[in-house]
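WARN retry 2 of 3 for item q-0093 after timeout on previous attempt; input resubmitted unchanged.
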Amino acid sequence: MKIEKAGSEICRTIQVVVEEEERSPEIKNPVTGEEAERGGEELFVPPLNFAVVDNGVFRSGFPDIANFTFLQTLGLRSILYLCPEPYPEPNTEFLKVNGIRLFQFGIEGCKEPFVNIPDDTIREALKVVLDVRNHPLLIHCKRGKHRTGCVVGCLRKLQKWCLSSVFDEYQRFAAAKARVSDQRFMELFDTSSLKHLPMSFSCSKR
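OK item q-0093 returned
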């Protein structure tokens, strides 16, 4: 495993390098080598709160072993991980087997998650999302609600969505756990420094 660190401490990037001969077409579950089967058919179980954000971009809660077979169908190149905790060993092994790059932006999970988080953290995360070389890409935190919701919400502002649509999408995933502070953060987030970056997917207003 090759570990790279960006110039700032905002993002920890892990490039997992796998020799071609290490890959095995027989492996169904890259960690356990077991098949999740029911009635002879392999199960494809998406992670909690999984959804398509746009072409080549997905969102979810934290994937576990039961979700790995489903994630393989996405052909992921990258995962954008928004929690500060180290990535679990089974998930790291999944990255290794499938040649997936991990971008980690450690945002603390608490009741007011963005009060003391600089905009630069979200801005740098969005640069990863906007770079098509990282697609297909999965954005996830623990539950796929607040941290993931704020990154996606700021992306929607870049896509010129109106705020009511941004908030509607956020609330659909956060439900009863929706936070006024998150919505305030998205409302005030300045996208001007990112508008020069190429946008390869939908920019339609909503």
